[in-house]
Amino acid sequence: MLENLLRPTHLLLLVIAALLLFGPSKLPELGRSFGTMLREFKKGARGDFKEEEDKPQEIKSIEDTSK
To answer: Is residue 59 pLDDT above 60, yes or no?
Structure first.
């Protein structure tokens, strides 16, 4: 059942359906946000988030002046 899912005709129908649903102007934005989501997910899965990035700028500056 799943082996027939990625045939060229099925992919073409999916692309046409996406164009009809979202329109050609929205598709690049959707692709960009999907790519960003995947990148962030991969970072989270690997544990690449730095503690410094999670802190707001105000807290960083207060910590820097207290040292």
So the answer is: no
